[in-house]
Design a protein that fits this description.
4 helices
Amino acid sequence: MHSPRVVAAAIVVDVVAIIAFATAGRITHGEIVTPGAVLETAWPFLIGLAAGWFTVLRALDSADVTKLFPAGVAVWAWTMAGGIVLRLLTATAIPWPFILTAAIITAALLLGWRLIARIFIRLRGGHAPSAAA
């Protein structure tokens, strides 16, 4: 299991990724990009992200938070499920292209940094920072 510092850093990177996703979406669609507007877009996905992290920290407590599976996939799946369900509950409709785009972009962001981290860990000698680090 990782040190609390590694877990906290991973959570921050995931939150920043979701904020970047929401910001890019608003820019792409010519919408206002203020902190409040970005949060309005991001909050369903941030709630899903929190559920994903709860799952990783509770149900998968021995999971390496930098691994694509199970940690990365669990965080991504919960982020998408929570984001889409909460948007469905609070919006009139969600077009399929949005769901597909959101799935691809959030996967690239949430899994991409983990892939890069795994490459660096392997280059460093195959060991992720542990609780003893």
